[in-house]
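cron nightly-structures :: item 1 of 1
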Amino acid sequence: MANPFVAATTTEEESAEAELPYLTEYAWDFEHDRLVYDVNGKPIIVYENEALKVWVYHCLKCERYQYNIYRHGEFNEKCNYGVYIEKYLGAYPNTEKTASLVRKEIREAMLANPYVKQIDYLDIGDIRHENLVLDMGLTSIYGSLKIKFIL
């Protein structure tokens, strides 16, 4: 039996999570950078953390402020989708300072998504070339998610 003297309260975070729509995305082949189709040629739909993994991948591949499609608002204000890391790739020495700046940009982009609760860890690999090696763990409203990408 529940304690009648304790008032049940919900936090703002819990009520915000309850209002979020169920997260769905089209399945993505990260190795070949393309959609995944079923045997009938229809795109496959993924849910929850697998959908969030697709969102993370696309967010990391999109340079922030570069494309007009990601702008919103009455006065065409810029939104927070994508990351601002292109300037670091191949242009700065592969030092801890550069990796720290890249981590900061990625954290900011990930935490803009309401499905992401926290970034558990974020390891940046080689950034001297055009590719970025990324190992990340995050906690979403659906649980833990580990991600490894070469972007």
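cron nightly-structures :: done
The chain has one domain: 22-150.
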